[in-house]
Amino acid sequence: MFPSQIEAALLSVEGTLPHYQIFVDRVKGLDQMEVQVEVTAQFFSDTVGALEKLQQRLAHAIAQVIGLHVHVRLVEPHTLQRSEGKAKRVVDRRQL
Question: Domains in the chain, please, with CATH?
């Protein structure tokens, strides 16, 4: 899995911004991945149902591209840390 694959899947769904971060954790011996995605202000002011549908569409788009189920968490615009230069897209929080 490459971060660019996640980005391509996210950008194929309307309502997302090109700001995302991937978190990898180990839970009960299994690796799990969460993708946090910034969505447009319009979606955050929309109904909970619309946010849930967007979250499902994003999870499906990612699964289609990488073949893995990931948890998608929607966050408000300007929530994720910006970096100068190359963005740090993957945060490995596993205790190996």
Answer: 3-81 (3.30.300.30)
Q: What is the pLDDT of residues 20-59, one digit of tens each?
A: 999 999 888 888 999 999 888 777 666 788 888 999 999 9
- Measured at the CA of 44, the angle between CA 10 and CA 54, to 5 degrees, comes to 40
Task: Report the distance separating Cα 63 and Cα 78, nearest Å.
Answer: 25
Which pLDDT value is given to residue 89?
85
| Cα–Cα dist 67/92, whole Å | 20
Q: Is 58 helix (H, G, I), strand (E, B) or coil?
A: helix
CA dist., res. 69 & res. 2, Å (int) = 15
The DSSP H or E segment spanning 2 is none
